[in-house]
Amino acid sequence: MKVIVVGCGRLGSSLANELARRGNIVTVVDTDPAAFQRLAPGTTCRTVEGVGFDRDVLENAGIAAVDAVVATTGSDDANALIGRIGRSRYRVPQVIARLHDPRQAHLYRSLGVHPVSTIAWGTERICELLSFQPLEAVLTMGDSDVELLRVAAHTLLVGTPVSALTVAGEIQVVSIERGAQAFIPISGTTVHDQDILCFAVMSASKPRLRSMLGQE
Fold first, then answer.
1. Smallest Cα–Cα separation from 154: which of 97, 94, 211?
2. N or C: which end of the chain has fewer CB within 10 A?
3. From the centroid of its chain, how far is CA 57?
4. What domains appear along the chain, each with residue ranges and CATH number?
5. What is the pTM of this model?
6. Burial level of 90, CB count in 10 A (0-12/13-18/19+)?
7. Is the Cβ–Cβ distance between 203 and 145 less than 8 Å?
8. At 133, is the pLDDT very low, low, confident or very high (cuts 50, 70, 90)?
9. What confidence tens digit (pLDDT) does each residue in 68-108 have?
10. Are 209 and 149 contacting, i.e. CB atoms less than 8 angstroms apart?
């Protein structure tokens, strides 16, 4: 996959390093050439100095042929503009933008840009850690509207059918890890001792899931 990461701060550099480590072709754009020092030594990332919403800079970065653009600058306005250019002018298939003010998420979506709010996700995750909830966040989608959560089945759940842990449109068991294997369950599948359950959950339904799991 070819990806442009705009902004080489702590988030952008970490993302670029990880994407490159996984074998992706990554180009990093930043106004400050010193920022590129955050990239891993010997990185395969290509670097382009310039303003991330300047079309000449983006074209130099190869935006016409990339699979994704991720805007991680410190400015919501700049990230939204970068996302808009990527979607409307260059038809980039996947555009993601960092969002500091989660109240503006609807504006990003209206532009066809996926917002990622580190504040909203971070707040929820810290609260979970402080309350010692055993739900492990694996992935968030949208503006944290839907989450994939991984949890070890309590002994009281042994023998419970997956259908009893499902709420249509809100909570769904999408996989079960049993020993060294993982599989997609059907409604009649029952929970075994030491199973690891992976749920797709609407964020607003997490309290309901905790209740179903006997955590409240």
1. 211
2. C
3. 26
4. 2-120 (3.40.50.720), 133-212 (3.30.70.1450)
5. 0.59
6. middle
7. yes
8. very low
9. 999 999 999 999 999 999 988 999 988 988 888 877 777 77
10. yes
Q: Is 32 exposed, middle or buried (0-12, 13-18, 19+ CB in 10 A)?
A: exposed
Structure tokens at 182: 């993982």
Contact yes or no for 190/152 (Cβ under 8 A): no
Q: Using CA atoms, how far apart are residues 175 and 88, in angstroms rounded to an integer?
A: 36
- Residue 201 to residue 173: CA distance in whole angstroms: 9
Q: Which token pair is 175?
A: 């996989």
Collapsing DSSP to helix, strand or coil, 100 comes out as coil
Q: Kindly report, residue by residue over 9-54, the tens digit of the pLDDT.
A: 988 998 999 899 888 899 999 999 999 999 999 999 999 999 999 9
Number of helices (H), then strands (E), belonging to the chain: the values are 6, 11
Alpha-carbon torsion (99, 102, 103, 106), positive or negative? positive
The type of residue at 186 is I
Report the distance separating Cα 122 and Cα 177, nearest Å: 27
Residue pair 29/52 in contact (Cβ under 8 Å)? The answer is yes
Q: How far apart are CA 92 and CA 178, in angstroms?
A: 39
Look-up of token digits 């395969």: 44
Q: Specify the residue for token string 């988030």.
A: 11
Write the DSSP string, 110-144. Answer: HTT-EEEEHHHHHHHHHHHHHTT--PEEEEEETTT
